[in-house]
Structure formats: C-alpha cells, structure tokens
Amino acid sequence: MNVFLLLTDAAETVTETAETSGELLFNYLIYAVIIAVGIVVLLLLKKATRLPSHTDVKEKVSAFSAALTATETDAPDRLVERLNRANKLVGDCDKLIYTTSAIAQKERDSDMDSVCTLLEGARGELVSFRNNGGSEGWRIAEARTRTESCLALLDNILERDKALKKNKKRT
What we know:
single chain, mainly alpha, 5 helices, 0% strand, flat
C-alpha cells in the first residue's frame, strides 16, 4: 500500500512541475517579447533624434533661401497672405536655427555656430517684416542675404569635412 501512495505522490509532483514549467516558459516568452519591443522602440528613438549631416543642413538652408527669393519676387497682395507666408518663413527659420545650434553644440563647431547666428539675424528681419504688416520688402532681401552668407559658410564647412576625410584616409 505504501508503494501505491508513493507512486501517486510522485505522479502528482510530475504534473505540478509540468504545469509550473509551462507557466515559466510562457512568462519567459512574454519577457523576451517585452525586451525585443523595448529595443525596437529605443532604436526608433535614436533614429528620430539623430542630427542631420552638414549636407542635409545645406540643402535645407538653400531651400529656405529659395523660399525667401520666391517671397521677395512674388509677394502676395493681400495682407493676410503676406502674414501667413511670413509666419511660415519664421517657423522654417526657427527649425533651421534649432538644428544648427544643436549641431554646433554637439560638434563644438564655431563655423556652425556662425551659421546659427546668421540665421538668427535672418529670423529677426523676418519677424520685423511680419510685425510691420509685410510692407518692408527690403527686410526679406536682408534675410535672403544672410541666408546666402550661411550657404557660403556651409560650403566652407563641407570643404573642411572633405579635407578631414582625405587626411583620415591617408593616415
């Protein structure tokens, strides 16, 4: 009789361990999925917060300069349209200022800081243009001149980057 009791007790222990190991395996699978999703989210955040390259910044500044030129040559007649376009230009300039400032801080680059300063001057001209009702067209021309100076500085930065790459390959 004791042998029968021992066998039934052993069978119950085996079924309990099978249930707990199945639950344990299921819990580990859930943890693995949570970790994988967390890694994917971190990779997406890293990609989203990555700063653009100098070439991308130059393209954005040249597009902004082209928008200023288009506004200067083809200014809308209605006040509301002029103010809306000025607001859009100020917003675009703010984005460029933020980007160049972040790059200048990260790379500790005084040339990129100069680009940021010129863009801040262009923003000041655009804000004055907007606040005066869009009647002072020379402010747009001044902002465009400053962005063209930014483009010249960015050309110098790109040439410097090419020279650094060439020197790095040589060594």
